[in-house]
2-dehydropantoate 2-reductase (Parathielavia hyrcaniae), 469 residues
Amino acid sequence: MAGRCGLADSPSLRTFPPRLGLVLSCPPATNIRYRPGQSGGMSPLPLMAAPTWRIQSRLALWDSGRDRVHGAEFDVLDSQPFTASDQIHVMGLDLAGRYMAHTLAGCRTIPPVRYVIHNHFMGKRWHENNKQLTLYRGHHMIIRRRIKADFTSEHDKRLEWGPIHNLVVTLPACQVLNAIGAIRHRLDHRSTICLVNDGLGVAEALIEAYFPDQSKRPIFLLGHLTTSLDYTGDIFSVSEVRPGRLYLTLLPSQGLGGNHEVRIKRHPPLERTVRGSHFIRLLTAIPGLNATGHPIADFMRYKLPTVAFRAIADPLAALFECRYDGLRDNPHARQLMDRLLAELSGVLSRLPECRDSPKFRQVALFTELRDKVFRKLLQQRTADSKMRSQVGRGWDTDVDFLSGYFVRRGRQIHYPVEVLDSVMWAIKAKRLVELKKLIRKARLEQLKSQSGAAGGSGGSGSQEQAQRQ
């Protein structure tokens, strides 16, 4: 892969600024440019010697010294050499998924991005939309066609699909587990999965459900996208309201359990660091994505305001059935938010992977956290909470990966989280109540329609029978 990417179908060319930090050379196997072949496929065009990359990250910290970690020491059982791949798959029809697939499709020095679609209806819509994604940026409309739909499901395990090496997942946290289950047969130790959503603890849930074997476990990256996006009315287009960044980190200890401390010379092990850092390096070299790699403590510092707000404000808005301004104007709701913030701050300040970072400890202070959450609440004004809408429809919510994440971490470190735990279970109970209401309503409407049909054809006797029914 070259050190820059062409944007032939973009209204303007953007120069990718040099990144400061770790200097990583481009592997010889990736120094190719893809161009359409004679038969319409993609054929590699060799390039001259590619320049070195200067990537703004601190990946070298994960390879240096002896790190104290929580979890059991493990060895990678796969003895095969690591072969880098620049093929990227994107899973997610949400705004972030469309945006990332569109941005990756503009880079011509990597293979066309593959959009994972395992819904026949969406596959039909994709073909009707001319197999393209559209980005609206100001007064510009940018269309990308270097995208290939990857139709797959758990019932379609054809060998020709092959493994997925680099996967970006932007689905809501509550949907990731089922979605990954559909392509589980294509993921193994050769894969790297980048999770870009507002939740925490998703990777640990995937490891527990699908990848208990350490020798066959993918590498997990965590991502946080700050680009402000909006809907356009078309399912395969997205509007960029305000540019942002993509923060990336390598999941520490890869979600391994264990309550005892051990020392290892390299954490993560060297081979797994190479696998994870290749995907980070690949994403940081994409123009327009503005991706940077960070240690876990710095990453959490950037992501914390969003996660804290969603873990506290969203459940309360759903429980009280109000918009965000309703929480701000309710003194009792603000008092409850303070109690939730106190527990959340106590858990964050004791996280073993972040407690050695002075900057993170400063952000995790109750006063700092409260200021950020209430400032964000003020910015939302009269906006409505997604969780409130989901609960009202009886849908699954992200509460297990928002409030639930801090409940689990609090119990691991023996810190009291009773208020967070109560709010989490209250959301689950309210969702179940709303779901049963909708089911009863649907049944009543069905009986009414049956009664009306019977009354029109069978007279009064049929009406009496329908009423008894």
Summary: The longest strand covers residues 219-225.
